Amino acid sequence: MKNVIVCSPKSLPASQLIVAARKAVEINPHNHPPLEHLALLVPGFRATPARIAVLTKKYWGIGGVKLTVSFLDNPPADLRKRILLHMNAWAETANVKFTASNTDPQVRIARAGGQDGGYWSYVGTDILSIKKNEATMNLEAFSMETPESEYHRVVRHETGHTLGFPHEHMRRALVEKLDRQKTIDYFMATQGWTEEEVIAQVLTPIEESALMSTAADPRSIMCYQIPAQLTKDGKPIVGGKDIDRSDSKFAATIYPKKTVAVKKATKTAAPASKRTRK
Ligand SMILES: [Zn+2]
Questions:
Q1: What confidence tens digit (pLDDT) does each residue in 62-90 have?
Q2: Ligand 1 centroid to 46 CA: how many Å?
Q3: Which residues, other chains included, contact 254 with Cβ-Cβ below 8 Å and sequence gap of 6+?
């Protein structure tokens, strides 16, 4: 338990954020933040390009996710197969498919330690902004000897990020375990966040953030994970252990399996819909 590795949030460098946000909206227009809504909700809200970029979601789109996967360090076939199996666990309810391929792979998995080590994945469409020879996901030291429970907790969580799911807030009892100042310093240093951003993201319990969060699930596999040095009792917060029911349901709403039966209707209504759109 002491040495457990937790997920470190991974985002693009600030210089790439605006371009990546535009790409995300190009791929899936629903990724654009609801600016009018925010202007009403947040006093003094200003829609600068940088602010819009931060608020832009990174989902792949209603048509589902089909991504190719490769491994950067040539692991054995049984390990590749096992990792892919757990990535595709999301496919149980959602229209999601990860396939092994060495031709221009979109998801690139490394198992590096050291500076770039740990467990992480870039979020959703952001993986398209990573250089072709660099990892989009890291599963430090994963092997066939890694316990099955870690495949559930780690591979499925990191795959959730690849699908575009951000971290969920923690419930109050867990937030209270955190050393507030250490947590602020840590996320400011590792994520480049401001103090306000750390407070909003990590130190605001799910009970208080329910208004902002679409899926308020305290046991979500996508909950924040916190390293041991940031908690008052010196124990890490490992987060959800597996995709739970509400995770599956949420994934199914973002990437529904059945295309809606109104296809024909929208086709007929196409000229009108053009006029009604803003
Ligand atoms: Zn994570």
A1: 899 999 999 999 999 999 999 999 999 99
A2: 28
A3: 59, 94, 163, 164
Residue 198 CA to ligand 1 center (angstroms) comes to: 15
pLDDT digits (tens, 9 = 90+) for 187-244: 999 888 899 989 988 998 877 765 554 556 778 899 888 999 999 999 998 889 999 9
Give buried/exposed letters for 219-254 (b at 16+ CB in 10 A, else e).
ebbbbbbbbeebbeeeebbbbbeebbebbeebbbeb
Bridge pairing between strands 137-139 and 119-121 = antiparallel
Task: Classify burial at 8, counting beta carbons within 10 Å of its beta carbon; exposed 0-12, middle 13-18, buried 19 or more.
Answer: middle
Delineate the domains of the chain, giving CATH numbers in brackets: 14-167+241-256 (3.40.390.10)
10 Cα–ligand 1 center, Å: 8
238 Cα–ligand 1 center, Å: 10
Contact criterion met (CB below 8 Å) for 69 and 107: yes
- Report which of 30, 84, 93 is spatially closest to residue 59, judged by C-alpha positions: 30
